[in-house]
Amino acid sequence: MPFKIEYKVILYLIFSLSFSNAFSQEEAEEPKEEKQRNWVMNGYLKYLQTVSYEDINGEWLTNNIIHNRMNFKWYASNSLTAIAEFRNRIFYGETVKTIPNYADIISRDYGYMDLSFNWIEMESFFIHTIVDRVYLDWAHGNWQVRVGRQRINWGQTYVWNPNDVFNAYDFFDFDYEERPGSDAALVRYYTGATSSVEFAYALGDSTEATKTVGMVKINKAGYDFQFLGGRVAKDIALGLGWSGQIKSAGFKGEFTFLRPFKNYSQEFWTMVASISLDYTFKNSLFIQTEAIYNSDGATGAPGQISLFQSLSVRTLSFTRINWLTQVSYPISPLITAGAATMYSPNDNSFFFGPNVDISITENFYFLLTGQIFKGSAASQYGPGGTFLFGRFKWSF
User: Fold this and answer.
1) Residue 104: which H helix or E strand, with range?
2) SS3 content of the chain, % helix, strand, coil (to 5)
3) Burial (CB count within 10 angstroms: exposed 0-12, middle 13-18, buried 19+), residue 212
4) Which residues contact 30 (CB under 8 A, 6 or more apart)?
5) 167-176, 304-313, 332-341: which range is least confident on average?
6) How far is CA 189 from CA 18, 177, 225, in A?
C-alpha cells in the first residue's frame, strides 16, 4: 500500500514547529540565568512487545509498538497556560497484517476535531499520530476555564467510572496512562478548598454525541461528594459519587442514571453503579476490590463483543454484574509485583492479569504483564484469548 500524507500531517508539522520556535526564541532572548524559563517539555519513549494466542497449541501472533509521547506546556502569563500533548506510534508485526483495516481502526478519532492520522500505511507496518491534548487553561481567583481537547476526569472509583461521562476508561488499555481527551469547554468555580461548581460542554464526531453536564462538589463528614446532571449524547444523565474512608480503608462509589432523551416518557432509567474498597497493610501490601452493576447488562452471555469498540457509561460492563480484585506488593524498592482478576457471575467468564514492574534506573523501567481471558465464545471475557506483554519505558 503506498504511503499517504494528508492535510493533517502538514498542520501537525506547522503546530510542532511553532511550539519549537516559540521555545527557541524564549531561550535566545535572554541568558537563562537572567530569565526564568516559562515553558516545560517532557515525555517518554516506549517499546511494547506483544504475543497473543487463543490456543496455546495454535497460532501465535506478535505485535510491536514503538511509542513516543511529547508534552508541551507554555505559561503565557500568570493566568493563562497553553498545553499541547501528542503520541506518535509505529505499529508493526503479524497483527497489523492479519486484522482487517487495523490502521484505520487505530486512527479513528471520536472527537469533534479529527486530530488523528496515519503518516504511512504499508502491509506490515504503519505510523500513527494523535494530538490528544491541546487546550488553553485560564485561572484567576476562584475561577478556572479550559477550552480545547482536554481530559475531564469526574471518576472516583478505579476501574469502572459511571460518573466519568466524558471519557470512559478502558482498563485493559494499560499502555495509555493519560487516557483519551474530549473537545470541550470547562468552567469551574471553587466555592471552597474542597468544593466547586463545574459546567462542561463537549462536542463529538456527530450532533448526537454532544454532551452538556453540570456538577457540584462538596465535602461533608470527611467525605467528598459530587452530584451531576445533564445531557450525555443521546441520554439524560443524573449521577452521584463519593470518596472517603471507613476507618483505614478507602471507600468510593459512583451511581449514574441514564434515560434516552428521545421518547423520554416511554423509556426506562438505566442504572450503572460501582463501589470500591481498598486497604494498604503495614508491610505495603495493597488490596483493592470493586464491583459494578449495570441494570441493562446481560444476565447471561452478552454475545460477541468487539475489542475495538468505543466505551461509554452504558457499556462499561456488558453483563449485569462484574467484580474486580487487585493486589500489589513492593518486593523491593525497585520491583513491584501484582495481579488483577475480574469475574462476571452472569456468564462465568473471567480475566486474570499478573504484572511485574521493575525500575532499572531513575527514568528507565521494564514492565512484564499478561492479560488472560477465559469463558465461552459468547461471554464477556471469553473471546479475548491470551496476551503477553513486555515493555521498556524511558522518561525524559
Assistant:
1) helix 102-106
2) 10, 55, 35
3) middle
4) none
5) 304-313
6) 32, 27, 16
Residues 248-269, buried b or exposed e (16+ Cβ, 10 A)? eebebbbbbbbbeeeeeeeeee
Q: What are 154's strand-pairing partners?
A: none
Q: Does residue 23 surpass a pLDDT of 70?
A: no
- Locate cell 463545574: which residue? 198
DSSP 380: S
C-beta separation of 358 from 334 below 8 A: yes
* DSSP secondary structure letters along 269-311: -EEEEEEEEEEE-TT--EEEEEEEEETTSBSS------TTPPP
24-74: per-residue pLDDT in tens? 555 455 555 556 789 999 999 999 999 999 989 888 999 999 999 999 999
pLDDT for residue 205? 80
Instruction: Please say if the pLDDT value at position 236 is more than 80.
Output: yes
pLDDT in tens, 347-390: 999 999 999 999 999 999 999 999 999 999 899 998 789 999 99
| Of 61, 135, 54, 132, residue with least CA distance to 95 | 61
pLDDT above 90: residue 303: no
Phi, psi for residue 16 in degrees, rounded to 5: -65, -45
Cell digits for 178?
493519560
**Residue 94 DSSP symbol:** H
**The amino acid at 96:** V
pLDDT, the chain, mean? 91
Q: CA 100: distance to chain centroid?
A: 25
Residues contacting 170, CB < 8 A, separation 6+: 176, 311
Band (pLDDT 50/70/90 cuts) for residue 20 is low
pLDDT at position 34 is 53
